[in-house]
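WARN retry 2 of 3 for item q-0093 after timeout on previous attempt; input resubmitted unchanged.
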Amino acid sequence: MKLIIQIPCFNEEESLPVTYADLPRQLDGIDCLEYLIINDGSADRTVEVARELGIHHIVSFKQNKGLARAFSAGLDTCLRLGADIVVNTDADNQYNGADIARLIEPILANKADMVIGERPIADTEHFSASKKKFQNLGSFVVRVASGTKVADAPSGFRAYSREAILRMNVINEYTYTLESIIQAGHNKMSIASVPIRTNADLRPSRLFKSPWKYMKRSAPIIVRSFMMYKPLKFFTILGVIFTIAALAIFGRFFFFWLTGGGAGHIQSLLFSVLFFVLGFLCVLAGLQADLTSASRKILEDVQYRVRRLEAKIAETNEQE
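OK item q-0093 returned
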């Protein structure tokens, strides 16, 4: 059983040694344990420091491409290296490395394909009150959109089985945390949450610069993911909203028409017709998007088979 711990890095020459020192060197149930960093266009000595530390594998971007791209590149590399389990952690040492044993336990027991570390958000001192509220709100919205019971959706401390990695397909460039849960929930993957500990803050978060900025960047990801994986439901909800609005406005016009003042409120009739048409168009858009979603599922299955074949070829070449 091979485990690779991957760490996306962007200018982490100071924090990387601290993070690496906190990681386990051996784990029960794991025969081979390796480390990989994804250098996301760092301008400092991140790569040199990684080599000095003896990290086994380094993936480097010439320029910064964002956390989601770095995460995906790491998973692809881990597949080619023959990983059975991949653990993703942050380079700022936010997560307690000793909890990796707890994180991979459901996968080793064949009870989950994805495991997410649940931070003690309420008790984390360096989280502001607003950040705690937005973290909890974001997790709630993702649970609704994904149909899962994930307690801490923004957590980047995660473990993935080989099967989960083969089916992973992150599209946005901001963060992988939310979209990957919605995608996994749609694909009926088994997702587990385990309580973890956090370390003292080494530096301010680069992803969560302010609650409002985080919400501004995350909301479109959740909406787009919901539209992508549950298009008929999404557009039907929109259609119902427009239809209810149309009925309400038409009711207003009908009331005035019964009382003899309908001629003065003809604009209400026009708006009700407009909203009826919008509602009908939303339902049609949902049906069309649902057909497109069916085609996307076929493409995802093809991608899964290609990835599995490429990973097997890469493993064979490495053994030779």
